[in-house]
Design goal:
It catalyses: glycolate + NADP(+) = glyoxylate + NADPH + H(+); (R)-glycerate + NADP(+) = 3-hydroxypyruvate + NADPH + H(+); (R)-glycerate + NAD(+) = 3-hydroxypyruvate + NADH + H(+). The chain is an alpha/beta fold. It has 13 helices and twelve strands.
Length: 326
């Protein structure tokens, strides 16, 4: 008999069929669907879980006595209690390579949108305000040759450094636990302290995951160290930045602008003060949201689950120590 799995996000038909070749697939729309009792029954039997989001912690694991692998269609896994999975010997698989270039494109899009005021000025054109040749109240600021700061030099940070260095002639500063040899050799990136990064850069780009260590890493004190002309971009996770402190800094001119793909609460509330600010570009967590990349992420997650449940894992495993136990 094929192992039973729960799929809790819609994926392309060919990938669904690939799952069905290996497993009995029970599909749901999220982990809190309308048909909750059917989900609970499926979870009792399930050996694998594939989808994205949803809280997977101790309490959730009580519902899944036969679970052997979780395959998230994302690189981030802050919604998952990895210690709880480890205790239960459940593998956690993710998609760390499928979205790198696309998220780096999103970062650059936010850098350009904020600096050149693309969204705000396009809205003014739509509102009929473009009546004459534009004056300096429509001007933006340059991106090329400005200093970019990358908070977290992982895969995405590296892809951003490449764009900034080769595409825009930008000096690159970065913080990370260890100096990153490739970033330094290929893109002339300079490793520095967080304070130096805050004080020197024109664009602060946050690509960090959410952990206990990164929660509110950028708060009022850190924002106060930035140049008043600086622009903050966040595509990592919302809670890495203290959103209330950011709102205050954007309102009182502590920093110039922000481009935000992620927020402390998602979806962002329509009443958020962020949406009232002219100097904010807010997009709905689109970091990886292109057709190609979302397909590739789902394909990677499908392959990851098959590997995890057939004992053939070679990559993309967050907790490989569990492999030794199973
Ligand atoms: C996904 C992300 O958009 O991979 C991640 O960690 O934040 C995004 O690429 C999101 O998790 C929904 O699949």
């Amino acid at each position: 008999m094929k192992p039973s799995i729960v799929l809790y996000k819609s994926i392309p038909t060919d990938l669904h069929q690939r799952l069905e070749q290996h497993f009995t697939v029970n599909s749901f729309d999220g982990l809190t669907p309308d048909n909750q009792s059917e989900l609970l029954t499926a979870l009792q039997q399930t050996e694998g879980l594939i989808g994205s989001g949803g809280k997977i912690d101790h309490d959730f694991l009580q519902l899944t006595p036969r679970l052997r692998a979780v395959s998230t269609i994302s690189v981030g896994y802050d919604n998952v209690d990895v210690d709880a999975l480890n205790q239960r010997g459940v593998l956690l698989m993710h998609t760390p390579t499928a979205l790198t270039e696309t998220v780096a494109d999103t970062l650059m899009a936010l850098v350009l949108s904020c600096a050149r005021r693309v969204v705000e000025l396009a809205e003014r054109v739509k509102a009929g305000e473009w009546q004459d040749s534009i004056g300096d109240d429509w001007y933006g600021v340059d991106v090329h040759h400005k200093t970019i700061g990358i908070l977290g030099m992982g895969r995405i940070g590296l892809a951003l450094a490449q764009r900034a260095h080769f595409g825009f002639n930008m000096p690159v500063l970065y913080t990370s636990r260890q100096p990153h040899e490739e970033a330094e050799q290929r893109f002339g990136a300079r490793h520095c302290s967080l304070d130096t990064l805050l004080e020197e850069v024109d664009f602060l780009c946050i690509t960090l995951p959410l952990t206990k260590q990164t929660y509110h890493m950028i708060g009022r004190d850190q924002l106060a160290k930035m140049k008043s002309s600086a622009i903050l971009i966040n595509t990592g996770r919302g809670p890495v930045v203290d959103e209330q402190a950011l709102i205050a800094a954007l309102q009182d001119g502590t920093i110039h602008a922000a481009g935000l793909d992620v927020f402390e609460q998602e979806p962002l509330a329509v009443g958020s003060p962020l949406l009232k600010l002219r100097n904010v570009v807010a997009v709905p967590h689109i970091g990886s949201a292109t057709r190609e990349t979302r397909y590739n992420m789902a394909a990677s997650a499908v392959n990851n689950l098959i590997a995890a449940l057939t004992g053939t894992v070679t990559e993309n495993c967050v907790n490989p120590q569990v492999l030794k136990q199973v």
